[in-house]
Design goal:
With about 450 residues, the protein is of the alpha/beta class. Helix content is about 30%, strand content about 25%. It contains 14 helices and 24 strands. The protein is globular and about 70 Å long.
Length: about 450
């Protein structure tokens, strides 16, 4: 496939779509849309690469193709606040040098990632969901969806006479516990307008059926923890405010004191409290005071579900913290699933925990302890019944996730394509591969980015 010509990127109408991250892997989401030579980006996330020792390294998309092809990003639209969608901002936003648009909660998370940088802080614009915004030839509208973090959004784009729905991360949960439910009436109305193309989340496309609700997980956690003696440690994704809310509920219902550990967990807790997402939440006991409590009155919620070596659970398992010591007979509950690529790191962590004679409970053996934030096949079918799209570009997943998504779409008579990173698709008619640009990764080392050899 030839390198794109200036006429393709800057003179032809488009719209065009290209992924510089988030296709062929889970993470590093960065998607570009262009029309009449005007380009916008959706999300700017970091990815993760396992090392030979089972640890993980952070990587971010390489923006070399923008300079090589004269692409200037005019606006950055953010769907939600997960690290695989905003985690590259500390390194890439200055290079993009454009205004950013998102919701209040996500803006709060981004501001905490770049504290003290007034020039970039001024470029954060708060949007109102279900309102239209203009970006050159594009019109954009954020559409609320349920996910495992507050204020997740799909984005409805119009450009060049085409209607595109970018799903972001989503699921259909009638009882998300925290935040708004999916705006189903608006999605149905969008479907009546006529959707040409869905750029869609493929993460759970191989999974049949529907996902469990957060309300179901709350009851599962209560039933499980109520039966456990001694200290209980629960690890989950820090950004899952609904899960944190449920654990506060469980602590009160079981007569335990809640303790929150891990910097990202504490940051999320503080932001959620500030934005009124945790009403009636118990006041956590400071970690340094937890040792004065009886073991059977402690419920510790902490980071580290993916085996990250510097997260609190790993430090606890290896006696690298002086604030608390786990004892034989304590329980560790993984209210999470392992992200592909983190299997070795999680296995190493569980071996440390088992060596300390702790009881480990996971969602593999106790499915009621976790619910995914991504749609299963029946949820995807429901969304497409509302939107009635003509075409699908399957993204956000490894290749087998994308292929399962395409197979499902084709069963629904939707023309489906499986894009790879760097492939430019012309969306002006039936999506077709028009050209390719460079796509790669840079390795995060401290405050620096260095070439990653693959």
């Amino acid at each position: 496939m030839p390198k794109p010509s200036p006429s393709l990127l800057h003179q032809q109408i488009g719209p065009f779509f290209v992924s510089l991250g988030g296709t062929g892997e889970i993470g590093a989401n960065l998607y570009l849309y262009g029309c009449h030579g005007y380009w916008i980006a959706v999300d700017c996330g970091q990815g993760f690469r396992p090392t030979s020792t089972g640890e993980t390294q952070s990587v971010v998309p390489d923006l070399r193709a923008l300079e090589d092809n004269g692409i200037k990003i005019q606006a950055l639209l953010i769907t939600h606040g997960h690290e695989d969608h905003i985690g590259a901002l500390p390194w890439l936003w200055q290079q993009l040098n454009c205004p950013l648009y998102t919701t209040p909660f996500t803006a709060g998370l981004i501001s905490r990632k770049i504290p003290g940088n007034n020039s970039r802080q001024r470029k954060i614009h708060i949007i109102e969901p279900l309102q239209s915004y203009s970006f050159g030839p594009f019109t954009g509208e954020w559409v609320p969806v349920t996910h495992s973090i507050p204020e997740a959004q799909g984005i409805y784009l119009k450009a060049g006479g085409r209607r595109i729905y970018h799903t972001g991360d989503w699921k259909l949960d009638p009882h998300p516990l925290v935040g708004r439910i999916t705006a189903t009436e608006r999605l149905q109305a969008i479907g009546k307008e006529g959707v040409d193309i869905v750029v869609g989340d493929s993460t759970n496309a191989p999974k049949s059926g529907w996902n469990a609700s957060e309300k179901t997980v709350r009851q599962g956690l209560l039933n499980c923890i109520a039966k456990l003696p001694n200290r209980v440690v629960v690890t989950c994704f820090a950004s899952n405010v609904a899960r944190l809310s449920s654990l506060g509920y469980v602590a009160k219902a079981t007569g335990r004191n809640l303790i929150i550990a891990g910097r990202s967990m504490q940051r999320i807790h503080q932001l959620a409290r500030q934005q009124d997402y945790l009403p009636d939440f118990p006041t956590p006991v400071p970690l340094q005071d937890a040792g004065y409590l009886p073991r059977d009155k402690q419920l510790l919620v902490c980071t580290g579900s993916q085996g990250e070596p510097q997260a609190f659970l790993a430090k606890l398992a290896q006696d690298r913290t002086h604030q608390m010591n786990l004892e034989a007979g304590d329980h560790v509950v993984f209210s999470s699933k392992t992200i592909p690529g983190n299997e070795k790191a999680v296995l190493r962590l569980t071996r440390y925990l088992e060596h300390k004679q702790l009881q480990i409970l996971t969602a593999d053996s106790h499915p009621e302890l976790h619910a995914s934030g991504h749609p299963g096949q029946e949820e995807i079918k429901q969304l497409y019944a509302w939107l009635k799209p003509k075409h699908l570009l399957a993204m956000h997943g490894e290749e087998y996730h994308q292929q399962a998504h395409c197979d499902l779409a084709q069963q629904l008579d939707i023309n489906a394509r499986l894009p790879a990173e760097g492939e430019i698709y012309d969306l002006s008619a039936t999506p077709r591969l028009a050209a390719e640009i460079y796509s790669g990764r840079l390795l995060v080392q401290g405050e620096d980015l260095v070439p990653w050899g693959g």
